[in-house]
Specification:
Blueprint lengths: L16 E7 L3 H12 L7 E7 L5 H5 L5 E5 L5 H13 L8 E5 L3 E3 L3 H11 L3 E5 L1 E3 L6 H19 L11 E5 H11 L10 H11 L3 E3 L5 E4 L5 H22 L6 H26 L9 H16 L4 H6 L3 H24 L13
Parallel strand pairs: 1-2, 1-4, 2-3, 6-9, 7-10
Antiparallel strand pairs: 4-8, 5-10, 6-8
Helix pairs in contact: 7-8, 8-12
């Protein structure tokens, strides 16, 4: 294991890119992750794997490759703490215009992600962050396939918004060094160890500092999905909790007004679904009526059209409305549970979770 590091060598006029991979028991996935970074058409100048409280072979896997490895036996700050410590190592000596990609240890970045991200930063000096659009290419369980369909729909929606949407994902996102330093100066750290979803906190912080952010269609990454319903519920519960926690931390501002407004939309969505199910139940004898045929055809066509790029299995599953309705309600229930826990303080623990992300 390497325990000392030298500053990045700089060629005059060039932009340096460092990659930080916090890894907690990621030995199973880390090989593909590191190899995807090494295979970039625009290779990074530095790769740091921060092995955080690992009990598996994460360190051994990382040391097979030409990367820097730091091993930490324990970290109370979870992933956020590992990222902050990684930034403490790579940021000294970097110029404000240099870039840092933070990514998960179970994510594979597509070949041209760094090259394309660097081009976006070069085109816009006020751009502070470029997020990947995350996809799922390999799935074995029904829950994994449903996540692949969800992520594909998100990618299409973000594309229609020209990439101006949502959170800078923790799966793989590239940041301008100047933006990261400004966040650290204003808020004490880049990533908040006390936040359940440190990526949302960083996203809103960057908005308040007037940095631009984008999720372009030419910056793609593939991640490992949650494999069962319990894991999915825990994951989405945590995401929801961190989202609400972030809004509560910043309060009502110009940059949080729309997110706060969307919470009213969530309540309306839940209420409207309950009303819909009630109406479907009371009119159940008419569901086989002829007028329902064109409605079902239109809904089915839209479902298939929005997921066909996720593969033939996703296309077939899109034909089964009850399955996707159940999935949507499962995610909604996790969100409500996460909000409840955040508001009541239930389940407040800083220990590692036995669930992906």
């Amino acid at each position: 294991m390497q325990d000392c590091f030298t500053p990045v060598r700089r060629t005059t006029g060039t932009r340096q890119i460092a990659v930080i991979i916090p890894a907690h028991n990621e030995g199973k996935w880390l090989t593909a992750t590191i190899e995807s970074v090494l295979a970039q058409s625009r290779p990074p100048d530095r790769i740091l794997v921060y092995a955080n409280a690992c009990a598996d072979d994460t360190v051994a896997v990382a040391e097979r490759y030409p990367v820097e490895v730091v091993e930490s036996p324990g970290n109370e700050g979870r992933k956020a703490g590992a990222l902050n410590r990684g930034l403490d190592i790579v940021l000294p000596g970097m110029h404000p215009g240099d870039l840092v990609m933070c990514m998960d240890g179970d994510t594979q970045v597509h070949e041209h992600l760094l090259r394309n991200a660097e081009a976006h930063f070069a085109a816009d000096p006020l751009l502070g962050a470029v997020s990947s659009n995350h996809l799922i290419k390999r799935f074995g369980t029904l829950i994994e396939l449903l996540q692949a369909m969800e992520y594909e729909r998100d990618r299409r929606f973000i594309g229609r918004r020209k990439g101006r949407f949502g959170c800078m994902t923790g799966m793989a996102a590239v940041y301008r060094v100047a933006a990261l330093r400004q966040v650290a100066t204003r808020y004490g750290t880049v990533y908040d160890p006390k936040n359940w979803t440190e990526d949302w906190k960083l996203t809103i912080a960057l908005k308040h500092l007037r940095w631009g952010m984008v999720r372009p269609q030419n910056c793609l990454a593939t991640t490992v999905p949650v494999s069962d319903m319990r894991g999915l519920f825990t994951q989405r519960e945590r995401w929801a909790r961190g989202y609400l926690q972030t809004l509560m931390q910043f309060g009502m501002t110009r940059w949080t007004f729309i997110p706060w407004l969307k919470q009213a939309g969530l309540g309306w969505s839940i209420l409207s679904r309950l009303v819909l199910f009630f109406l479907l139940y009371t009119t159940r004898h008419h569901l086989a009526a002829e007028w329902m045929i064109p409605v079902v055809i239109i809904l089915t066509a839209d479902a298939v059209n929005t997921v066909h790029k996720a593969g033939w299995r996703a296309t077939l599953l899109a034909l089964a409305f009850p399955v996707e309705i159940f999935y949507a309600w499962l995610v909604t229930a996790a969100i409500v549970s996460g909000y409840f826990k955040q508001l009541t303080g239930a389940g407040a623990s800083d220990t590692w979770k036995k669930v992906r992300r």
